[in-house]
Automatic annotation (TrEMBL), chain A:
Residues 12-161 form the Glycosyl transferase family 28 C-terminal domain. This is Glycosyl transferase family 28 C-terminal domain-containing protein. GO terms for cellular component: UDP-N-acetylglucosamine transferase complex. GO terms for biological process: dolichol-linked oligosaccharide biosynthetic process. One of its GO terms (molecular function) is hexosyltransferase activity. It holds the Pfam family Glyco_tran_28_C. InterPro entries: Glyco_trans_28_C, UDP-GlcNAc_transferase. SUPFAM superfamilies: UDP-Glycosyltransferase/glycogen phosphorylase (SSF53756).
TrEMBL record, chain B:
Pfam families: Alg14 (PF08660). It comes from Aristolochia fimbriata (White veined hardy Dutchman's pipe vine). One of its GO terms (biological process) is dolichol-linked oligosaccharide biosynthetic process. One of its GO terms (cellular component) is UDP-N-acetylglucosamine transferase complex. GO terms for molecular function: N-acetylglucosaminyldiphosphodolichol N-acetylglucosaminyltransferase activity. The chain crosses the membrane at residues 12-35, 131-150. InterPro entries: Oligosacch_biosynth_Alg14. The keyword Transmembrane helix applies. This is UDP-N-acetylglucosamine transferase subunit ALG14. It is found in: Endoplasmic reticulum membrane. Keywords: Endoplasmic reticulum, Membrane, Transmembrane, Transmembrane helix. It is a single-pass membrane protein. Its main location: endoplasmic reticulum. Belongs to the ALG14 family.
Amino acid sequence: MGETVDGRSKKTVFVTVGTTCFDALVEGVDTLSVKEELSRKGYTDLLIQMGRGSYIPSKTSGERGLAVDYFTFSSSIADYLKSASLIISHAGSGSIFETLRLDKPLIVVVNEDLMDNHQSELAEELADRKHLLCARPQNLQETIRTMDLESLIPYPPGDATAIAKGINRFMGFPDD
Amino acid sequence: MVYVIISTMDDICNISMLAIIVSAVVVVVSIRVAFVLYKCGKPLHVSTLKPVSTLIVLGSGGHTAEMLNLIKVLKKERFNPRYYIAAMTDNMSLEKAKVLEESTIHETGARDLENARFMQIYRSREVGQSYVTSIGTTLIAMAHAMWLIIKIRPQVILCNGPGTCIPLCAAAFLLKIAGIRWSSIFYVESIARVRKLSLSGLLLYKSRLADQFFVQWPQLQRKYPRAQYVGCIM
């Protein structure tokens, strides 16, 4: 992880809200307490993909503490995920599985303002199975303070062959 | 006076004839519906060697990603030709399906994309649309789905939500009842559904329109015993 820039080792936290509007998360990571907690954990940079939200985080160069930067959208977040040491994401299944496939530590923050909030189901299930950490905007700082990234278990890649087998059998195709 | 009585007698005759015809039709149709529902979910007891025309409904975003993961492991020469359908407002899904199809051209030795077609369908309801106007748009979506299903007459329908697949499955069911084309509907509930089925999943499960119903979490299988647990596909 950490590449060296100006003689210091860079450890980036990447925050992504996808195509949604999730100001509570952007505002949450931009609070002094969360930024100090991340600094204490050894992170040097905070990069926020803020989507359609209206809350604008305060950019800082990070002479003292965390360097903060943000952007709205990018056609692909793959490169940002790859170069990050920790990812804090909204609960969309796209970002969750893209991050897990890269085997990166992930904190999923559930958006409680969504009406049909089935998204928390997936994040909580994967947190129970220790593939990621699940938080709410209000307990993000606590989650970061107590997190033990060593305890996370790599996510095994998915496999659709059981469905293919079921379909083949139903249709009368011979088993391969 | 006599004439009036005769004409009312005639009317009564006509009305009762009409009643008999209508009830006969209702009985025949109900028996047919019951028979079709009984046969849904039963494996086709023929060993198929010929390829089956396959309709693949892409539901956008995570739904499309999951569906394409399934398509990757299906034998292309069996599920052939393949018709991909996505919502009018979704311009990413068909592109992703094209990329997948192009990558398999070299493996199968097919020329161009001759075995894959790409189509779009009107959606019954956009996110945030009011329920009143969605009655009209649902009717349009229903008609469009009927037209596409009659044109394609698929033998296999693969879908995994959200709502886009419902009018298509309903139209395919009507074709089954009419005896025009027997299709097998396979529904894969999204990986994001751990404890509860989605609305489209619930509709296809309860109505028994889906011949096979797959779920990706064991909790769901316990709650919906006719579903098959197949593990995560993402």
